[in-house]
């Protein structure tokens, strides 16, 4: 339950409650699933900087944004730059190739979770080459490959059958990118009374296929799945990154990026 303080959402309580649920779900996860404790990415899209500062003040460091322009504004906000020096920004929205250069130079950009095809990967790889030239301390850009597990036309992501090939392209043809694993958004509103979430099953299959093809330890390949309404179930399946927004920041109005 979200508690409101002085008319605003209590972000600190929301994060604490979410972390407690992560701990509980992780403790219940089958021992046969060899995966690390999930990392929380607090999804702050459409929410004001003040709420991000609240979350950061109690130790939350990873924040996710869906819109390029909004991330640009927040990452360059003087309050964020001054008070959140260790913040890690995760871009979790659809990234068009023509906006790559707007995002790669942002301060504290940590990961692009939505690399959905080879063209985008190649563009990011070339752009990061320039970033490294200007900032030698910048080694590789962290990325995940996005997989469209639900098959919905409105969802981005490579098809599950192509996941291994895209992973191969990123790891073998894009030396400036470090591919940490896989990500999906999945279909919203799955009814767990009908059975397991097929999107989670599909993503874990892609994860296993990649691990087998590249002889990777399954515990070393990240899985980003699960949001406010299903992150507990996602953890039970093997998620290592959960992206939680409304449970922390409260409900949000829909926003379309121009």
TrEMBL record:
- Ranges for domain Alanine racemase N-terminal: 27-252
Role played: Pyridoxal 5'-phosphate (PLP)-binding protein, which may be involved in intracellular homeostatic regulation of pyridoxal 5'-phosphate (PLP), the active form of vitamin B6.
In terms of Pfam families, this protein maps to: Ala_racemase_N
Q: Which family does it belong to?
A: Belongs to the pyridoxal phosphate-binding protein YggS/PROSC family.
Modification N6-(pyridoxal phosphate)lysine, positions: 45
The record's annotation in SUPFAM superfamilies points to: PLP-binding barrel
InterPro entries associated with the record: Ala_racemase_N, PLP-binding_barrel, PyrdxlP_homeostasis
Name under which the protein is recorded:
Pyridoxal phosphate homeostasis protein
This protein's source sits in the domain of life called Eukaryota
HAMAP family registered for this protein in UniProt: PLP_homeostasis (MF_02087)
> Keyword set for this entry?
Pyridoxal phosphate
What NCBIfam families does UniProt report for this protein, alphabetically? Answer: YggS family pyridoxal phosphate-dependent enzyme
